[in-house]
Design brief:
This protein has three helices and three strands, in the order αβααββ. The chain is mainly alpha-helical and 105 residues long.
């Protein structure tokens, strides 16, 4: 049995929202790959050590710079970017070491 017209419209809207969400996720993923590749390439070209500090406490807090900036800071895929940099550095056999406070790749 088919749902009401209202249910059909709601389902169509949900599908559109999901498609937009999926597209946004793919764009973010693409940017993260490009940025992480650039960071590793730059470090390799300059014979530099990649150091990423631990950003504990940065999530879900007021930055004092307004609502928009809070959304940007709190939605940064920091963990994902860090992991991409780490595996790409290891792929290129870039020197790495790790400490509790800072991650060196």
């Amino acid at each position: 049995m088919l749902g009401s017209e209202k249910d059909c419209k709601k389902e169509g809207l949900n599908k559109e929202v999901k498609e937009i969400s999926d597209k946004e996720k793919r764009k973010v993923e693409d940017v993260l790959h490009k940025v992480s590749r650039d960071i590793v390439d730059e470090a390799e070209n300059n014979n530099s050590l990649i150091v990423i500090g631990e950003l504990k406490g940065i999530g879900n807090r007021d930055t004092g710079n307004g609502k928009t900036m809070n959304r940007i800071v709190n939605s940064m895929p920091y963990w994902k970017l860090t992991n991409m940099i780490e595996y790409k550095a290891k792929e290129k056999r870039h020197p790495s070491s790790e400490s509790k406070r800072k991650r060196h790749f």
